[in-house]
Design brief:
single chain; Uridine Diphospho-n-acetylenolpyruvylglucosamine Reductase, domain 2; Enolase-like, domain 1; 5-stranded antiparallel beta sheet; 11 helices
């Protein structure tokens, strides 16, 4: 490590003021601290958000689940209210990393980081969520801009994410065994507006698959996936899996996510 200034804040206004002055916001630290140890990041001033009570908690209605930015993955996983309204979101949170990561990592940190193999971005995109910040509200479709890139402006902090409650949904992830990130993860959500399918781990950031969406709108069943050709040309190839393998995994994981969704009814 190296010398840096550490600021522990207790209010959103304190945090935004310090970040506006050049401070780096620190959420759960599961990505940032590792990057600092590897000298991939070298912030001079860390602004720790962990003690801002207004950024912790879950609020639910019959139509929405609002999760505040500093709420941990473990809290989402164990929340009875989340399980009752969006069981797939609880399942997703319970499959992130290991127990230590889930105890410290936060939804706001994960969404702001936008790792191309992270789980939460697929949930936001498939469920049509809204990212609430200190300045505005941003639809998930407009928020994710590619690998580690988002629509957040300098100094803008996420305060919460609002998820519409779907008719039914499912999330299936094929884990990279060492990191437990998604080699391929697929989130499927059906609502009164149709079907949305979001894929993580397979490309240059999370993306929706319109071919799968159209097929599942016509016939919401695992068999409908067989009619869709998954093009591997824009998918990742690396030491873990080829693009062709990932294309096949997208189909397999989509079928599993649909089976989960159907089991809810």
């Amino acid at each position: 490590m190296y010398a840096f200034q550490y600021e522990q804040v207790t209010s959103v206004s304190q945090a935004t003021s310090l970040v506006a002055e050049g401070g780096q916001a620190l959420a759960g630290g599961q990505t940032m601290l590792a990057a600092m140890k590897q000298r991939l990041m070298a912030p001079e001033r860390l602004v720790d958000l962990a003690h801002i009570k207004d950024l912790i908690g879950i609020e639910v209605t019959n139509t929405d689940v609002l999760i505040k930015a500093m709420t941990t993955h473990q809290t989402v996983e164990l929340s009875r209210e989340v399980k009752q309204r969006i069981a797939s979101l609880s399942l997703l949170a319970g499959g992130i990393g290991d127990r230590q990561v889930r105890a410290l990592g936060t939804i706001g940190g994960s969404v702001a980081n936008n790792d191309p193999a992270a789980c939460y971005p697929s949930a936001l995109l498939a469920l049509g969520a809204t990212v609430i910040t200190t300045q505005r509200e941003i639809a998930a479709d407009d928020f994710f801009l590619g690998m580690y890139a988002t629509a957040l402006e300098p100094g803008e902090l996420i305060t919460a994410v609002r998820f519409p409650v779907p008719k039914r949904s499912g999330y299936a992830k094929f884990k990279q065994p060492a990191s437990r990130f998604a080699l391929v993860g697929v989130y499927v959500a059906q609502s009164g507006k149709g079907v949305r399918v979001a894929v993580t781990g397979a490309g240059n950031g999370v993306f929706r698959h319109t071919g799968l969406e159209q097929a599942l709108i016509k016939n919401f069943s695992p068999e409908a996936v067989d009619s869709v050709k998954i093009d591997p040309s824009n998918l990742n190839s690396d030491i873990h899996a080829s693009a062709l393998y990932r294309a096949n995994l997208i189909a397999v994981q989509t079928k599993e996510a649909v089976r989960q969704a159907l089991a809810q009814v």
